[in-house]
Structure formats: structure tokens, C-alpha cells
Amino acid sequence: MFKFIKQRIFRSILVLIGVTIVTFTLLNVIPGDPVAIMLQKRTDEETMNRVRHELGLDRPLHIQYIDFLRGALKGDLGNSYFEKRPVTEMIFNSLKVTLKLGVNVFIFAVIFGIIFGTLAAVFRGTIFDRILMFISTLGVSAPAFWVAVLLQIFFGLHLKMFPISGMNSPNSLVLPTISLGMRFVASIARQTRTYVLEALSQDYVTTARSKGVRELFVICIHVLKNASIPIVTVLGLELKNILGGSMVVESVFSIPGIGRLAVDAIVSRDIPVVQGTVLFAAVSFVIINLIIDILYGYLDPRIRVEGA
Amino acid sequence: MKITDILFRNNKIYEELGIDDKLSSTGLYSDAWKRLKKNKAAMLSLVIIIALVFVAIFADFISPYSPEEQDLRNKLQGPSSEHLLGTDHLGRDILSRIIYGSRVSLSVGIVAESIAVVIGIIMGTMAGFYGGKVDYLISILIEVFASFPFILFAIAVMFVLGPGITNVFIAIGVIGWTTLARTVRGQVIQLKEKEYIEAAKASSSSSIRTIIKHIIPNCLSTIIVIVTLHIPGDIMTEATLSFLGLGVQPPMPSWGEMINNSRKFMRQAPTYSLFPGIAIMLTVLSFNTLGDGLRDALDPRLKNL
Q1: CA dihedral sign of residues B142, B143, B144, B145
Q2: A253 contact residues in B (CB cutoff 8 A)
Q3: Which domains are seen in chain B, by residue range?
Q4: I want to staple B127 with a disulfide (CB 3.0 to 4.6 A). Which of A255, A297, B135, B247 is the partner?
């Protein structure tokens, strides 16, 4: 187990280095000149040179990269071009909001996804199963931003039940949670159904049933426990998508989270903020992935052996 | 008794038993097609997709109005006999814009996915075939690219490249190859152990030749399934980018851009946002269902993708 963890951590460090290189290259090398993008070529060459010097962008790229990496390790991602505040501070302020939304979405998706998926598996082949699966297929196919707009029109403008933007009232997260969470409920339900069906056909389920264990206990104790391993992986993967999906939903509902920060920074061409949010999102995902893999290795010894 | 007689006799037995699965199997793809034909949902999706392609190609003939023709006196109208799905904030016919918007969505699905397929196959086969350090390096690269939330990465790439449909193709293609590469890698590692690959190697077939003649054709069914399941994601990403104003630029109609415009007129025209969203959902749904059907027909082992 220790060897497995060590190898996995080493690999993650390599991936993290790769992530920093890609982020840095993307936003510093390809466009050629961040200053020109920032000032949108509206100024003369002299001013551009001065700004370039002030920001340290006239140094060789590898030195800039090493500086960027050194800063990032210390938690310093530079300052916003326009707000003049440290990017790290801006990210953490909006992270609180995104996490609040993310936790809501996650809980919403896990509870409904697992319940619906298990029910569909237990009643497989019935009309109930078909309806659930059809709804979940629709749910996976509907774009979150569209659902968000429809919810705003119906529950916000029409029924006036929930606010359609901002974070001012306790109810303000209801519509964002549903619009972002719907597709995750759907995909978790589909996956859960598959794994529960698989677990239901195992010998230990037959044994438990033949021992006279009540069906509810069979499902809750034997089936769900064994189906939980693949479900944990799915949840981990979805976590990344929730973070990605929050970008758009936050924009629609004017929620000041990471997604909104990134989109706003892109519109205002604030490169350090764009770079910081992209890096932050990728790094969090690598770490989440690492934790899941270790958890997975712990739950299922076969993976440890394969990985080692 | 000759073997053909046995086969023939079996066929007869099957006929008597009323089983139409004769032993005259003709190969993986025709078998898969037979299985797919039995899947009603997948066949319906296939019909919808073919219809959609038809609509996109013949948009000029089908569409009742020009997608860019403005009629400011009749803006934000609800559905009527003149404008079946109503008009937008510039008085343009929503149905016509949805019809033309299918061109954007489908071309993103095809072009962007083709870019991703080429990169994915090259990376996946190289990693799986050469193994060792090459594999380790490519696997790390796959992990690096897979670490970025797809949409955020796409937005960042669009930021660098600037808006426009060509850049949407590039952004989605350059990011979207990781799943394919990972799966192809896994398949190649399995295939490498097969006798016919060893035979090819033993008869001094070059690596490239072995890969092209023996490895890729054997991964093809997996590739088809993954591509079909990826296209809806690409279409969704384009819609999201255009929704955020970073994708296709006006006046070119895109479903995502239409929903974005509709937001400003929620009060006046609540049905405006409804139809482009249905178009996205129907398209994505059809590709997803067809992909699921293809997966079951071609390679049930891919269930967990």
C-alpha cells in the first residue's frame, strides 16, 4: 500500500508540473504578447514596452516560468491587472461561494442520483424504471445554462418563488443547484443503476436472500456497499465537471464564484486572473484524483497490485 | 461429414426452431448492424441524426426565411402561422435560425471530433505499442490534459485564439482527445499480446505497418463508439462557448448564442429560449442514444465509458 501511494504521489507531481507548463504556455507563449492583448493594441509601442517591463514580461520565457512556478508554490499567482489585488486572494474569496454551490450540487446529485439509480435497478424492466431512465437521459442531454434560463423564467419571473440572481437570500442557491445538479443526478442515477444491477446478480446477494434477510437490508447492506466502489470513482470524476459546470451557471445567476471570476477575467482580458483560475482548477482536480485513487486502492486491493 | 454440412444442418435446425440467428455470420460489423437494428431507441436516434444532417445540408431550401433577415416591426413574437416558432429580438425567424444553427453544431461535432480522433489515435497507439518510457510520458500528458475542467480549458483556449468557428474546432479538438487516447492505449496493450501481431512482427513487418494494418482496424469499433459518444459533448461545448459569447460570432446563427440573446428578453418573449434549447437537447440526446446502442452492439465491454 505504501509503495502504491508513493508511486501515485510521484506521478501526480509530474502531472502538476505538466499542468503548470501547459497553463503558462497557453497564456504566455501562444498569443505572443500578453501586453498587446491586455491593452488591445490601443497604445503606442513605447507604452507597451514600459508596461511589459513593469510586469517583467521582457525577460526570457524560461525565467518567467520559473518565477511563475516559484510564486505558485508559495501561493502567489501575481496581481490582477485591473483590480490590483493578489489573484490568490480573489480566488479564495470566490472559492468560498463556488464551494457552497458545489457542496449543494454534490449533495443534491448524490442523494437523488443514488436513490433514483437504485430504485431503477430494483424495479428494472418495469415502466417505472423506463420513465426514470428516460428522464435521466433527457437530464444528461439538456445544457445546464438552458435549464438555468428556463428555471429563471418559470420559478423566478412567473411564480416569483426564487430570486433569479445574486446571493442575497437563503433561497438564492436553489435554482443554481437544480440547474447545475440536474445532469449529475441523471448521470449518477444511470451509473448507479448499472453497478447495482451488477451487484444484484452476485452470489452473495442470492445467499443473503436465501438466508431470509429482508430485501431492504439486502439492497442497503450488501448491494449498495459493493456498488459503492465504482460509484465513488464516478463521483470523483463528476466533481471536476461540477467545477467546470459552475462556470456557466454562476454567470447566468450572477453568483460571484470562481466560474464568474474566470469568465469576467476573460472578458476583461485580465491574464493573471485567467491563468490563476485555470491553474487552480486543474491543481484541485489532480489532488482530488490522487485522493480518489488512494481511496480506491484502499477499497479494492486488486488495484494496488496492478498499480504497483 | 463435411463441416459445411454440419453448418447447414444447424441452420436448418435453427429455422425449425424459429431462431433467425443463423450461423452464416458475416463479420463484426454486419453482426453489430443486426443487433443495432433491434434497438428501437438507437434506430430512432439514427433517423433523427440523418434528418438533422439533411436539414443542415439543405438549409437553403428548407428554411422559410433567411436567418439574417430582420423585421424590426415584428420582433419578439410568439409562435404563429407566419413564424412557426416566433421571432427574435431583431425580428428574425427563430425556426430559420435553428435550421441554420444545425450547421454550426454538426460541423463542430464532425470537424472538432476529427481533430481529437487523429491526436487520440496517434497518442494512444504510440503509448500502447511502444510501452516503457514513451507510454509513461504520454500517460502523464493524457493526465495533464484531462486535469483541466473541459469547458474552462476550452474558454481559455478560445481566449487565446479569439472567437470564431474555426477556433472552436481547434479548441475542442486539441483538448478532447484524452479519453480516446486512454482507451486506444488500453486496447493496443491487449492486442499486442495477440498471436497475429507477433506473427506480423516475426515476419519483419515495420512498426508503422503493424499499427496501420493490424492494430488500428482492431480498435476501430471502440473508436466508433467513443466518437459517437463524444460528439454530443462537443456540440454542448460549442453551445456553451457561444452562450458565453466566446464561440461563433453573430450574425452566424448558433443555438447557444440564441439562448444567450433570449435571456435579455425573458419577460417579453418567454418562448424565445425554449426552442434552441430543445434543438440542442434533441441532438445531444440522439447522439447519446445512438452511441449507447452502438456500444451495446459493437462492444459491450465498454459499458462503463
Answers
A1: positive
A2: none
A3: 25-302 (1.10.3720.10)
A4: B135
